[in-house]
Amino acid sequence: TQLLEQSPQFLSIQEGENLTVYCNSSSVFSSLQWYRQEPGEGPVLLVTVVTGGEVKKLKRLTFQFGDARKDSSLHITAAQPGDTGLYLCAGARRGSGGSNYKLTFGKGTLLTVNP
Amino acid sequence: DAGVIQSPRHEVTEMGQEVTLRCKPISGHNSLFWYRQTMMRGLELLIYFNNNVPIDDSGMPEDRFSAKMPNASFSTLKIQPSEPRDSAVYFCASSPRPTRELNTEAFFGQGTRLTVV
C-alpha cells in the first residue's frame, strides 16, 4: 500500500485552465514537500509546508497543507505548457530509529498542458 | 555549481551480471540518498547516509543490493547478481543538512536508467 496517494494519476488540460491535484494520507507528517520532475531529469523541489493549514504561493502555484497535516493540495492557475511534468508530493516523518527524518514520495500526478 | 552527478546515464546488462551505479553528491552536503523509480511503485527510498555513515537501509529490496560511501564525494550502489525486475531509474540525491533536521531539501541527479535483459 502507498503511504501517500496522489490524484489524479494523469491530467491533460488546455492552456489557460485551472487545476488542482491532491496528496492524501492516513498518516501525519512533520512537513510535506512538492517536487516537479521533467522527462529524463530528477525531481526538483518547489515548496515545503510545515504548519497545519499553511498556504504558500509560488507565482501561479498555490500549495496548501491540511489542518491535520495528513494531506496537501497544489492548485495551478492559468496553466501553461511549461507547467507540464510529473508533480510529486513527499512527506517527512521520523524513521524507526526515531532520530532521523525519512522522506516518502507519492507516485505523482502526470500533468500535460496542451497549447 | 555542479549538481549531483550520476554515472552512467544508461546501463543495459544481462541477467546475472554485476551492476555498479555511481554518484558524486554536491560538495559540502551532509546527506546522500539512493532512490529507485518505477511506474508501478513510484519513487522508493533504498538507503541513506549521514556524513558517509549508512543510517537506514530498510528500503534495500534484497541482499543482492549494496551501497557504500567511502568518502564525502562518492557513493556506489551495486546489484549482484542483477535480475530483470531490477530494471528502473535509480536516482542519487544529496542534502545540505543531516536527516535529523526537518525540511531537508533533496537535490537529485539526473538518474541512471538500468535495463536488465
How would you portray this structure in words?
- The complex is a heterodimer of chains A (115) and B (117).
- The model of chain A has no long low-confidence stretch (mean pLDDT 93).
- Chain A has a single domain, classed as Immunoglobulin-like (Sandwich).
- In chain A, strands 2, 4, 5, 9, 10 and 11 form a six-stranded mixed sheet that branches. In chain A, strands 1-3-8-7-6 form a five-stranded antiparallel sheet, with no helix packed on it.
- Chain A is globular and about 50 Å long.
- Chain A contains no helices and eleven strands.
- Chain A has 115 residues and is mostly beta strands.
- Chain B is mainly beta and 117 residues long.
- Chain B is built from no helices and eleven strands.
- In chain B, β7 (65-71) and β8 form a beta hairpin.
- The radius of gyration of chain B is 13 Å and the shape is globular.
- Chain B starts with a strand and ends with a strand.
- Classes of the chains: A mainly beta (115), B mainly beta (117).
- At the A-B interface, β5 and β10 of A face β5 and β10 of B.
